[in-house]
Amino acid sequence: MDETEKISSAWQRSVRGLSRRPELGKVTHSVTARITEGLTCAVEAGGHRLVADQPEIAGGNNRGLPPSLYVETALASCLAIGYRQRFAATGVPVRAIEVKVTATIDVCGQYGLDDAKLGFDGPVSYAVRVDSPAAEERVLEVLDWVDAHSPLTNILRKPVDLRRELTLIRTDD
Q: Suppose 80 and one of 34, 71, 99, 111 were both cysteines; which one would form an S-S bond, judging by CB atoms 3.0 to 4.6 Å apart?
C-alpha cells in the first residue's frame, strides 16, 4: 500500500467510525512545560518532547523556538497535513505540498508597555504551494474545504475561554 492509499484508508476508516460514534471525535490532550534553565522549557506532549525558549536578546538560551512560533508551526503543519489527507481522501493527485505561515507578533504588551498590542499584530497569512496535475478548481476545492474544517484555523479565528488553576507550593528555604 502506498502513502496515498494508506492516508485515504485511514481517512475513510475515521469517517466511518466517527459517523457511528461521534463522541470519539472529542480528544483531550495535555501538554506540560517545565522551566529547566533560565527561560528554557522542556515540553512533553503526546509522548514527544520538544524545547521552547526565547532568544538570547530576550534573556533566553535560544535552545528552542519561542512559544509564538510554535503557534505558527502548528498552523502550518496542521494545514499541510490536512491538505494531504484531503487530497488522498478525494483522489486528487498531489506530488508536494508546502505551507508557509507569516505573522507579526507585537511583544510590547508582554513587557507592560502597551496592553492594546498583545499577540499578533495584523493578519496571519499563509502561502500554499501545491504540485499537482489536477485542475486548479479541484485543488482549490481541497484547500477551501480544509481551511474551513481545520482545527487550527478555527482555534485562531474564534476566541476560547481560558481558565487558570493554581497549585501553590511553599517550601521552607
A: 99
Q: Where are the beta strands (DSSP E) in 30-74?
A: 31-37, 40-45, 48-52
Which residue is associated with the grid cell 496515498?
4
10 Å CB burial of residue 52 (0-12, 13-18, 19+) is buried
The three-state secondary structure class of 51 is strand
3-state secondary structure of 131: strand
Strongest mean pLDDT among 48-52, 158-162, 167-171: 48-52
One-letter amino acid of 9: S
Please name which of 76, 91, 97 lies closest in space to residue 12, comparing C-alpha atoms. Answer: 91
Q: pTM for the complete prediction?
A: 0.89
pLDDT at 22 over 90: no
Say how far apart CA 101 and CA 129 lie, in whole Å: 12
* Section 42-46 average pLDDT: 95
* pLDDT per position as a tens digit, 125-136: 999 999 999 999
